[in-house]
Design a protein that fits this description.
The structure holds two protein chains of two kinds. Chain A is α/β, with parallel strands linked by helices. Chain A has helices at 40-47, 71-74, 90-99, 105-114, 130-142, 160-175, 187-193, 211-216, 231-240, 260-269, 284-292; strands spanning 2-11, 14-24, 29-33, 55-60, 75-78, 148-152, 179-184, 196-201, 204-210, 224-228, 244-248, 252-256, 274-279. By secondary structure, chain B is mainly α. In chain B, α4 runs parallel beside α7. In chain B, 48% of the residues are buried. Classes of the chains: A alpha/beta, B mainly alpha.
């Protein structure tokens, strides 16, 4: 269980995290989603005690991380694949971690096997690819067999095999009753493995709900898409009927507040030929883009007009 | 999954110490620095020993410990690397999430560096003794432990080397950047003293007495100390005073590093 309560972290005049509150519960994978620079990593770093909150609290299993008597057994942490001395072998890196908690060499070998790093165990970490670094980071997180896992962008740099493996691993860990907090800026990745999603932008909470709830919130959800020979005439007809109409490229209209049947009938009424008509379904990606639309720090001018 | 946990779970001082020893010895460059330091100490002693003649007023212990002038840089580098590598490689994220109380890590780093430096310095002293043996046979003064302060000078070589290594740990952990820690260290233990020595006077001699480079007095036998005290216009530090000055620097720098580590964010 991870509880973040009114957490604020400022660096000088920059506010990285602003009054953030959310809970990650046991037995679920909680996805932590937000654009680059939204404050995901900062939040995770405060949770594991690397940084001090400006105000608010963050606790794991009801305690401040720094007060945990045996952190490795309580929380598995992977913040960055580059958290290893490049001159040290994978085995020695994990051994040094294990030694701080009196964990034996057998367990080190076990996590090396579990993460598929056995053949590379005696290679220096500096020679590792990003994907292997991620596997080493995950091996370190699993070392103490913890009840809570905090993984920052774990699929970053992994090959398709590795992505599948992480997806399967976090599902399995949650099924065993563990708390998993997993950050990503890839919404489809989280849609596939998270139960709940916490979305933040500019350090503020934008949404905290199940994946289904967030999808249902998408602007496209419940909308009707219609392509006709005369969009203007149909738009006028629909507006008088009390629906909301958003014109789009290629003679397409997006209609809210009217069913597919209503739109079809309206088209018949004003004598417009319907070329295409259907209900739209929302996606996490849409919901995410709408939610974070105002809070993206870095974006290309091109994506500004793209809401699809 | 099985948890192969033995004994009381959690980190203890001894466990963190074992982990830091693994970290120190598992990075190949640390081993090379130690070996290089031994080679530099013996090589310098051999080289300087060639030029010492009986009439120079240099004792046998001076010849054996003369490699310190360069070897101390090896000890400084070793300490700086222990103090900074956590922060330059990102290992700090792993280390301080594993031991979130943080200070036991610094304490363990001090202990493993002390052990490594004492061992390296003892080996370097032995190597210097052997390297200067051949030279002694000709006409340079022989190492004679009955000379007043000669045995203390040999012990001083080991103690001063270890202290310089710890000075490196303190500077490294405080500044977190190897370049700035090294420059500061070299200024404090070597260059600062030499620059001030070019302009002798009450002020400069007083400053020199209170720089960490004063620790090199530990390497002098009684006669050499008397010689130094005769020319200085600064305070008389006595037999152990230079060592105490160096020790105070080490303690103050480590305390500052501990303060920064416990009070500030780790990146």
């Amino acid at each position: 269980m991870i509880e973040v309560e009114a957490l604020t972290k400022r660096y000088g005049s920059t506010t990285a995290v602003d009054g953030l509150t959310f809970t990650a519960r046991p037995g679920t994978v909680t996805g932590f989603l937000g654009p680059n620079g939204a404050g995901k990593s900062t939040t995770m770093r405060v949770v594991v005690g690397l940084e001090r909150p400006t105000s608010g609290t963050a606790t794991v299993a009801g305690r401040r991380y720094a007060d945990l008597p045996a952190p490795l057994h309580a929380v598995g942490v992977m913040l960055d694949a580059r958290s290893v001395h490049p001159g040290r072998t994978a085995y020695k890196h994990l051994l040094a971690m294990a030694q701080t908690h009196g964990i034996g060499k057998a367990r080190v070998r076990e996590v090396l096997a579990q993460t598929g790093l056995e053949p590379a165990a005696n290679r220096r970490a500096g020679t590792f690819s990003l994907g292997m670094g991620q596997r080493l980071g995950i091996a370190g997180a699993l070392l103490g067999d913890p009840a809570t896992l905090i993984l920052d962008e774990p699929v970053n740099g992994l090959d398709p095999d590795g992505v599948l493996w992480v997806r399967h691993l976090v599902r399995e860990l949650a099924a065993e009753g563990r708390t998993v907090l997993l950050s990503s800026h890839l919404m489809h990745e989280l849609a596939l493995c998270a139960d709940r999603v916490v979305i933040i932008g500019r350090g503020r909470l934008l949404a905290d709900a199940t994946v289904q709830e967030i999808v249902a919130r998408s602007e496209r959800a419940g909308a009707v898409r219609v392509r006709t020979t005369d969009p203007e005439a149909l738009a006028r007809e629909l507006l008088t009927a009390g629906a909301d109409v958003t014109p789009q490229d290629g003679g397409v209209l997006q209609v809210h507040g009217a069913s597919v049947d209503d739109v079809g009938t309206a088209a018949r009424r004003c004598g417009v030929t319907v070329l295409e008509l259907g209900a739209e379904s929302g996606s996490l990606e849409d919901a995410y883009l709408q939610l974070t639309g105002d809070s993206v720090e870095y974006r290309t001018a091109d994506t500004l007009g793209r809401t699809r | 999954m099985t948890a192969a946990v033995m004994g009381r779970p959690g980190s203890t001082g001894l466990r963190v110490l074992r982990a830091e020893w693994t970290k120190l010895t598992s990075v190949r460059s640390n081993v090379w620095i130690a070996l290089g330091t031994v080679a530099v100490a013996a090589g310098t002693a051999y080289g300087l020993g060639l030029f010492v003649r009986p009439g120079d007023g240099r004792s046998g212990s001076w010849v054996v410990t003369s490699g310190f002038v360069l070897a101390q840089l090896g000890f400084l580098v070793l300490g700086v690397l222990v103090g900074t590598s956590e922060h330059t490689t990102g290992t700090a994220r792993t280390t301080y999430t594993t031991v979130p109380r943080r200070l036991p890590v610094l304490a363990a780093q001090v202990q493993v560096t002390l052990l490594a430096a004492l061992t390296t310095a003892s080996v370097a002293l032995g190597a210097s003794y052997l390297a200067t043996g051949g030279v002694r046979a000709v006409d340079a003064p022989a190492l004679d432990l009955s000379v007043p302060g000669a045995a203390r000078a040999l012990l001083g070589f080991v103690l001063a080397s270890a202290a310089v290594a710890l000075l490196g740990v303190g500077l490294g952990a405080l500044l977190r950047h190897p370049a700035s820690a090294l420059v500061a260290g070299v200024l404090l233990v070597l260059v600062g003293d030499h620059l001030l020595a070019m302009n002798p006077g009450r002020t400069t001699d007083t400053i020199r007495a209170f720089l960490p480079s004063s620790g090199a007095r530990l390497l002098q036998d009684d006669a050499a100390l008397a010689g130094l005290d005769a020319v200085t216009r600064g305070p008389q530090l006595g037999v152990w005073g230079g060592g105490v000055v160096l020790l105070v620097w080490v303690v103050v720098l480590l305390a500052a590093a501990a303060y920064r580590l416990s009070r500030h964010d780790v990146r």
